[in-house]
Amino acid sequence: MPISSDYVTSREYEERVYAGVLGKIIGVYLGRPFEGWSNEHIEKTLGEVNYYVHEKLNAPLIVTDDDISGTFTFLRALPENGNDPNLTPAQIGDWWLNSIIEGRTILWWGGLGVSTEHTAYLRLKAGLKAPESGSIAANGPTVAEQIGAQIFIDGWGMVCPGDPERAADLARRAASVSHDGEAIYGAQVIAAMEAAAFAETNLDVLLDTAAALIPKDSVISHMIGDMREWAAANGDDWRATLRQLQAKYGYDRYGGGCHMVPNHAVVLLGLLHGKDDFQRALMVANTAGYDTDCNSGNVGCLMGIRNGLAGIDTGPDWRGPVADRLYLPTADGGRAVTDALRETYQIVNVARALASRPPIHPKNGARFHFSLPGSVQGFRPENSPEVRGAITVDNQGGRLALHLRRVAAGRPARVATATFTPPDALRMGGYGLPASPTLYPGQTVRAAVAADGGPSQPVNVALYVRAYDKDNALSLLRGPQQPLSLGQSLTLEWVVPDTGGQPVAEVGLEVTSDTAATGTVLLDSLTWGGVPNVTFRKPDGGNVWERAWINAATEAHFSWVAGGRLCRVVDNHATGLLLTGEWEWADYTVSAEVLPHLCRRAGLAAAVRGLHRYVAVVLDEDKIIRLIQQRDGDRRVLAESARTWEYEKPVSLSLTVTAQGMTARADGETLTAAGVDMPARGGIGLLVDQGHAEFGPVRVEPA
Q1: What is the rounded distance in angstroms from the CA atom of residue 150 to the CA atom of residue 263?
Q2: Are residues 500 and 558 in the same domain?
Q3: pLDDT tens-digit profile of 645-695?
Q4: What is the pLDDT of residues 472-481, one digit of tens each?
């Protein structure tokens, strides 16, 4: 089964990872609206679940979900720790603390002893290192053997193509942060099967391979044998196998709210009775009930890897409604609004690093490059009355194809993708969507467009953005138009203008014509880079702009401050942060006036890569101004000033981040530090420790 280490550099690997990512999110979106329903209730209400049912249940399709957030976030412990193949459970546990905003992101916050992940998080926060944090010894077997280890595990399998042993080993390390016992065995089986599926599609071989990697006397091992025997005997009758599953491995035999064993059995049910068909496997796993989004996500990921993109496309249009969209709410707000292709290449580059191969950045690292078949990266036609029906989109040869339908005077065509929380997600239930924008004023957007296959006559093309306004609606800001004729290619460039403090919500391409134009315009890539040139200040009305800051403090007040200040940040217990920006930012200066009230320390953070990884200039509790580095549990003073500060008196602070070092200024006095052992790039943060402080308008500009 082992395949060449060069496989990770192949197009086939990229496409199978993409199919796995798509299968994961499709499965989750399919099962989420009726999560927790019994088989009887599902069949009575919905019948067999062969396609999305969210509209029948008045639910959104694209949602935040712990299955998705945890899967793609916890895997980042590898690249953020140098892609060390010997990554430890303790390091993964530290990554949990760095990424998770307590009570607000990723996990089900059901309480100590109720939610396994919440329990493990509290153990980690109290100083208990992984794997002890997830152990039966610390939390008891009922808590430790719930389903979470399985739902978060797919990424660890996808970075180990053809190497199920390594996948099972990494799965054990990752799962042990929060789980133990049978939960770890179930996670290892899923990860090992997914790793093996890059080289082998036969389900019996995959099951044999995975079962050989867990203890033969485990419940999961015995259950695999039972499920295979029952499925073989029952043929097409998956309901007969379900009844046998319920009798021997049902919820009534296991404690807690969502135990690993019954749900792992449902995953196997979908695979064994799916007949190697993506749609049927998802139908069985979802119609069977139990934790439908979790089980469906695992089934979808494995089936995507096994059968590739063609296997997903064999059935109904799974991909069109999804349009690659997914949300990852974490302490990295700039990655909260993302897409399946972007996450695919994050996984691919981890695998390449583990195989000692260089990373790949299609089309010179363009943010939107559409390189894999069918990818649209969240781009959808605008649906306003002015433009509805003027355009459809699909992928043609690795480019986004914009098919014009009689675009004419007063009837433009527009296609866009989200750069921040879209309007339909502002009132999302469940986990919500804490997010920072990915695009800011002062950044230059570049797009490569072509008219290889049309249009029928010259058209005008222009970049545009929509930003929220004082009414919390989206207002259009358009760049300069350029003419585009048949056979022509051109590059559009546009600096995003000042938006008055309002966040940019989407970026897109507009096509106009004076007379009716049909045909196709191709968007080859769209991207931006560098840091913004922007002042974060209170805009003239609206409140969506407040959500552009990720609140990792007890409170953040934007309305109770005067004197032109932006906000007040409060933390009752420890260090609180209010965060924005992207982790790709480098070579910049952040500055603001800080007014300390009752607090241990307050200041500005930069190069922020999570809650416990940043540099900061702080007004420290002994009245000294210091430049510090925070890395996980280690805080180090890099420099300090002879100047002191006083409560209730503002101090002008700035912090410059470059590859050569960090420079802080406090009312004109300079503190410098070199040799910082962290990446000199990341977002920004407003920091307060055990108390509160106010912050004036915040300025970010190139260094």
Answers
A1: 9
A2: no
A3: 999 999 999 999 998 899 999 998 999 987 678 888 999 999 999 999 999
A4: 999 999 999 9
CB 191 within 8 A of CB 167: yes
Residue 94 to residue 244: CA distance in whole angstroms = 41
How many residues are recorded in the chain?
Answer: 703
Distance CA 210, CA 189 (A): 5
Q: 313 with 412, same domain?
A: no
d(CA 192, CA 539): 51
Residue 519 has pLDDT above 70, yes or no: yes
> What one-character DSSP code corresponds to residue 547?
G
Closest CA to 33 of 285, 323, 286: 286
Query: 147 and 66: one domain?
Result: yes
For residues 434 and 330, give the distance between their C-alpha atoms in angstroms, rounded to a whole number: 7
Cis peptide before 131 (omega within 30 of 0): yes
Domain interval for residue 455: 380-528
Identify whether 537 is part of a domain: no
What CA–CA distance (Å, rounded) separates 507 from 83? 33
Tokens 């990852």: give the residue: 328
CA 42, distance to chain mean position in Å, is 30
505: domain CATH number is: 2.60.120.260
Peptide bond into 532 cis (omega under 30): no
> pLDDT at residue 28 above 80?
yes
Structural domains of the chain, count? 3
Task: Return the SS3 of 487.
Answer: coil
Q: Could you tell me if residue 344 is inside a domain?
A: no
Is there a contact between 414 and 382 (Cβ–Cβ < 8 Å)? yes
Q: pLDDT (tens digit, 9 = 90+) per residue, 582-628?
A: 999 999 999 999 999 999 999 999 999 999 999 999 999 999 999 99
pLDDT tens, position by position, 248-270: 999 999 988 899 999 999 999 99
Residues forming beta bridges with residue 691, ordered by sequence position: 571
Alpha carbon of 443 to those of 355, 528, 701: distances in Å? 35, 7, 10
| Cα 222 from Cα 203, distance rounded (Å) | 17
Residues 388 and 502 in one domain: yes
Asked whether residue 357 is assigned to any structural domain, the reply reads no
Residue type, 209: T
Average pLDDT value over all residues in the chain: 96
CA–CA gap between residue 216 and residue 222 (Å, rounded): 7
- DSSP calls for 283-321: HHHHHT-SSHHHHHHHHHHHHHHHHHHHHHHTSS-SHHH
Closest residue by Cα to residue 157 from 21, 25, 270: 21
Report DSSP letters for 36-73, one per residue.
T--HHHHHHHT-S--S--TTTTT--SS---HHHHHHHH
Q: Which pLDDT score is estimated for 1?
A: 61
Q: Which of 577, 535, 337 is nearest to 437 (CA)?
A: 337
